[in-house]
Amino acid sequence: MFIRAYLRASTSEQDANRAKSSLKKFVSGFSKRIASFYIENKSGNSLDRPELIRLLDESESGDVLLVESIDRLTRLSPDDWKTLVASINEKGISVVSLDLPTSHLTFGSFPSDDFMRSILSAINNMLLEILAASAYKEYRERERKQKEGIVKAQQKGLYHGRQPDLEAHDRIASFTEAGFSINKTAEAVGVSRSTVIRVRKRLKNLD
């Protein structure tokens, strides 16, 4: 079994390496190590991700695709998600995600009883589908709100330039609501202080 970690961020403003230490710490708890890291700055809403494709090409049956959360792997539409899952299943790869506890059984003591194995596999697959669908729904909802926000900002004469990254915007908003400082928010999201300040200001103007 080779553990292949996939780390993704949407834009170059975000630090795709941010979760590396968390993934290392997670697998070390099972006395395992990560064989390879595949890191890229690409939207999770697209199948055109060279590093993810390379991971799949280099994987063998029994290998593990490790991610911090399912939304790092996919924000794909239902049809594109089916395409990705088909590729994963065809290669015989197991998906393990820190936010999907049932997937952790891949590294632990999986029941030897065939019936229980089937039940747990079915539950894991169902939860994986739910998280994938939720990630896509959240992406579309943020996209809708972002477009509405841009229209409002344009009407107020506040918006100029390219559309900000949706995922970074959402994460900054979440950490802001949780009371994180500008420095802590920038570190957690993997962006600059100026980006955090700019997004916070825009959020305040749109309230």
Automatic annotation (TrEMBL):
Alphabetical list of SMART domains matching this protein: Resolvase (SM00857)
Keywords per UniProt: DNA integration, DNA recombination, DNA-binding
Gene Ontology biological-process annotations: DNA integration
Entries under Pfam families matching the protein: HTH_7, Resolvase
InterPro entries: Recombinase_CS, Resolv_N, Resolvase-like_N_sf, Resolvase_HTH_dom, SSR_resolvase
Superkingdom of the organism of origin: Bacteria
Domain Resolvase/invertase-type recombinase catalytic residues, every copy: 2-157
Matching CDD domains: SR_Res_par (cd03767)
Keyword DNA-binding: yes
The keyword DNA-binding is assigned to this record: yes
GO function term, MF aspect, one: DNA strand exchange activity
Active site as annotated: 10
Family of the protein in this entry: Belongs to the site-specific recombinase resolvase family.
Listed name of the protein: Putative resolvase
Organism expressing this protein natively: Catenovulum agarivorans DS-2
Lineage of source species: Bacteria, Pseudomonadati, Pseudomonadota, Gammaproteobacteria, Alteromonadales
